[in-house]
Amino acid sequence: MSATLAADEAIARRRREGQQVISMASGEIGLPVHPELRDRLAHAADRASYGPVAGSLALRTAAAGYWRRRGLDTDPDLVVCGPGSKPLLYALVLAVGGDVVIPTPSWVSYAAHARLAGVRPLSVPIAAGQGGVPDPDLLRETVTAARAAGHDPRSVVVTLPDNPTGTVASPETVRRLGEAARDLDLVIISDEIYCDLVFDPATPAVSPAVFAPERTVVTTGLTKNLAVGGWRLGVARLPEGEAGRALHDRLVGIASQIWSSPVAPVQEAAAYAFGEPPEIVERVAQSRRLHGSVARAMAERFTAAGAILTPVVATCYLYPDFGPLRTHLVRAHGVYNGAELARFLVERHGVGVIAASAFGEPLAALRVRAATSRLYGDTDEERTTALTAADPTALPWIRSSLDRVGEVLADLAGPAFAAPPAASGPAADAA
Amino acid sequence: MSATLAADEAIARRRREGQQVISMASGEIGLPVHPELRDRLAHAADRASYGPVAGSLALRTAAAGYWRRRGLDTDPDLVVCGPGSKPLLYALVLAVGGDVVIPTPSWVSYAAHARLAGVRPLSVPIAAGQGGVPDPDLLRETVTAARAAGHDPRSVVVTLPDNPTGTVASPETVRRLGEAARDLDLVIISDEIYCDLVFDPATPAVSPAVFAPERTVVTTGLTKNLAVGGWRLGVARLPEGEAGRALHDRLVGIASQIWSSPVAPVQEAAAYAFGEPPEIVERVAQSRRLHGSVARAMAERFTAAGAILTPVVATCYLYPDFGPLRTHLVRAHGVYNGAELARFLVERHGVGVIAASAFGEPLAALRVRAATSRLYGDTDEERTTALTAADPTALPWIRSSLDRVGEVLADLAGPAFAAPPAASGPAADAA
């Protein structure tokens, strides 16, 4: 069972039982559907044919335009749409075949996909601050050793920007990844679903498709940008060239046997969204600002409690390391690893987070992932207010979550870190 | 690539190129969405959360009621919903593990699912007229021999009513299947998506869940009943008992990693449909009558041309055997197998059908599957008229397809079978 979805269901149960909870476990985006997007789906409710396995030409063309505006020229005939980027990522593992290199830490489903596909997930650590991309030197070592041992790695999965660390690997790291992948003849599967959620637009994530266009598959979807995870719509961009076209055909064949086609009415709405009309661009910008503001304010609470945190520059995820508090946590709370820490936070305080071990890290790691994307309000009215607020962290319902987490972390950390968190506000947010 | 979806796309291409085509390749149901069902989806367009992996409680409860009304008492906690019954069937193969017995002939995706899951599909022929269920005696022989050879069959897939033969295995065959599965300790995966499309309601298909409740998983969906294939919504009913619950949990775990959850707005519409309000029951009854009328009239054209056809009693599929015309087909047209026959029909006459080899039959078999579900009209107005017509075969657009196929088959069969097809009408339809 996906750790994030399982944690999500556990938190929902607690809430139904009347407990006060702060849900930072799953990264589901708690924001309303943009009214225009909702209307597109409603107007397409009479569309009920399968249509092409790879998705309608209108949707594939819109997705190609989306990538073209980001510097990646794209042939609509090399775009494959599916019911979420998750099934596309799984089908890509099947289509490429062979073992898969995944970064540590990384999203919970990559390793699960490899296991379901009957291949071996090979873990390669990230370099510090370079979340989502296996350290290119270690990638070379690991693949070479695996091949010497008779294994058959054929692909490497990367996440740009990264879940769970909220960081973005530098262009130089991505360039070196591309070089290593070319030398090792690996397909790069680049999960770029957080592409538009880099807080500072001046420093975007750079896709490996820039450096290794002949071997990079890019995936994205509507889930994170537009808060429609429940609509299940993802898109994949296959490489030009003979190998890319062969991979495209295998992917479409697998799609035809596992899911047939993306949901027809959703395709219509998605084609509109990938066309990026001004109201959609503005909505994504609002979400980005909201994530940035709240994630950074929340990061301060963790830092104030003594956790180490690489500055969060994208997504809605924090990945605090409580290693410096290890002795205290064991003595005061009997908490000796990330899973114990997550259990302590949810059972004692109703604060849901995910242990680092779910992301492939060692059991002993005292790290957790906290997502801020559920803290924006309990009603659509609150959430809409949050989207347009100059300082979302000053809104009472967001402020109270921040304060509550600050208190919980103060309790966790004990007297040594009992100081109140630093004041947050526009000035602090810009830090 | 799924043979039916591939054929579908090829026919659509020909149509776009301005060719006159008669599409009997895919079994997609060419009928409009019921307005009430469409409105439910439209009204749910603001639902965008994932919700539970297995589907909402409302949908699972509605599906449980659907099965309860058909004599299968069902716990909503043992219902798992997914984006189509196709992904559920695939995930079940992964969840059960081990090799899979499939009937010959059978739907194109069962064997593909086994191959994608990295297990062995074991083919067992059906007994004459007992489509969808492997002959129980041959099932015993095959599984025993496979185990002796070191293989590990753990499940058997059945289709009730059957695609591609349009027949329904008798309760006695199903009882013997259940007995064999129990003796062999096999899980039965029973695809019952055509359950409500048995032409004579007095002789319904009987589920193996009646005879072997502890080991039978039943799947169905909205695609065939309500012509919303593009909405991708299927449901699975897991068995009571410890093994059933363990299988349920594995299935949900796999679902969480491959597709997350069924599409949220579609779940709302599906809960309404599985609740079976009178207007939905009536719509399904109309579809059933329409399929019965047109499929039987089309069957007469094939029989008149000299093909052998087991009487079609359910679905919208005919499975004619042109074996008696083999010598003529080779001499007159260079057609020596099912694939050549399908190619001849589409290239010379624009009539799309699927060769028996796509359903696991030997290449040499001179059988094809023809679906009538696309012949009900080119516009929603025509299709709605067809749904309520006392004699749909008398409607000009349906009559012209029947006549055209009759002419094509007369050309195929040559002078020996050039007699005009028998008159069809209410009397013939009731046969």
UniProtKB/TrEMBL annotation, chains A, B:
It comes from the Bacteria. PROSITE patterns: AA_TRANSFER_CLASS_1 (PS00105). Signal peptide: none annotated. InterPro entries: Aminotransferase_I/II_large, AspAT/PAT-like, NHTrfase_class1_PyrdxlP-BS, PyrdxlP-dep_Trfase, PyrdxlP-dep_Trfase_major, PyrdxlP-dep_Trfase_small. Its cofactor is pyridoxal 5'-phosphate. The keyword Transferase applies. Its EC number is 2.6.1.-. GO terms for molecular function: transaminase activity. The keyword Transferase applies. It holds the Pfam family Aminotran_1_2. It is an enzyme of class 2 (transferase). Residues 22-371 form the Aminotransferase class I/classII large domain. Keywords: Aminotransferase, Pyridoxal phosphate, Transferase. Transmembrane segments: none annotated. Belongs to the class-I pyridoxal-phosphate-dependent aminotransferase family. PANTHER family: ASPARTATE AMINOTRANSFERASE. This is Aminotransferase.
